[in-house]
Design goal:
Blueprint: E1 5-10, E2 13-18, H1 29-43, E3 50-55, E4 60-62, H2 77-96, E5 101-105, E6 108-110, H3 112-118, E7 122-126, E8 130-132, H4 144-154, H5 156-165, E9 168-170, H6 171-177, E10 182-184, H7 189-202, H8 205-218, H9 226-231, H10 239-250
Parallel strand pairs: 2-3, 3-5, 4-6, 5-7, 6-8, 7-10
Antiparallel strand pairs: 1-2, 8-9
Helix pairs in contact: 1-2, 3-4, 4-5
């Protein structure tokens, strides 16, 4: 049986694939677990600079959770709580990932698939992609941990519009609502995702990690402490700052070390 979550590393860029194409990459409990474990492991790898997250094939990123599991894994509240713990652990792993996450979205991106994409830093889709979370039609609620990413991405009003109406949006509508960062012709999505990852990887990796950390911190309403403010200037003591500064003066491309 092929791995449900595949990883392909090319230099400082890792591509993580939701690998269940026969089911349009519908998520199962083992897939949620494997995805969280994979993201945590990649996050700990200091040699990486960017992660592309995609579904296998070009028909679907993911339509969300496999409906077939409801009978065996989510038939009642107790089972749903256990299932939710696995999902929410993976959501937490995506949320705390140190490296920039680029969602490469082909086709369907609905329900749990949309939740995964919402946790990525940049979301690139094709013109034929479709988005939504029509879980009201299943009599299901989006839990706090899942809704938090959606609200953080598009705001309370749009998140409630998506959940209360349960509509499916095309790529242009999704872009207008802030669900995606960039819409490309379908045939160009993979190339644009790779080019985006390369641009990210060419920058100072410590800076990318700091920017992600600071963005997460600014979502917290507590005042930023003096110690946290001081961390904004730690970059001046890095080798990468000296490399970048020297390269700028010499008008050449910097070769950052991540130190």
């Amino acid at each position: 049986m092929p791995e449900l979550i595949q990883v392909d590393c090319k230099g400082p860029i890792a591509t993580v694939v939701l690998n269940r194409p026969a089911k349009l990459n519908a998520m199962t409990k083992p897939m949620w677990q494997a995805l969280g474990d994979t993201i945590d492991a990649l996050s700990d790898d200091d040699l990486l600079r960017c992660i592309i997250l995609r579904g296998a094939g070009e028909k679907s990123f993911s339509p969300g959770n496999d409906i077939g599991e409801f009978e065996t894994e989510r038939a009642n509240k107790a089972q749903a709580i256990a299932y939710g713990r696995v999902m929410h652990a993976t959501i937490a792993a995506l949320s705390r990932c140190r490296h920039p996450l680029v969602a490469q979205i082909h086709g369907i991106c609905v329900g749990g698939g949309l939740e995964i994409a919402a946790l990525c830093d940049i979301r690139i889709c094709g013109e034929s992609s479709r988005f939504g979370a029509p879980i009201k039609n299943l009599g299901l609620v989006m839990a706090y941990q899942e809704m938090a990413a959606l609200i953080s991405l598009v705001g309370r009003d749009v998140a409630l519009e998506i959940l209360l109406e349960g509509q499916i949006y095309d790529a242009a509508q999704a872009r207008a609502k802030g669900l995606v960062t960039r819409v490309m012709p379908d045939a160009q999505v993979a190339d644009e995702a790779w080019a985006t990852a390369q641009r990210i990887a060419a920058g100072a990796p410590l800076v990318a990690r700091w920017h992600k950390k600071f963005a997460r911190r600014l979502a917290d309403p507590r005042p930023v402490s003096e110690e946290e403010n001081d961390e904004c200037f730690d970059c001046f003591d890095t080798k990468d700052f000296r490399i970048g500064y020297a390269a700028f003066l010499a008008k050449r491309k910097p070769d950052f070390l991540g130190e």
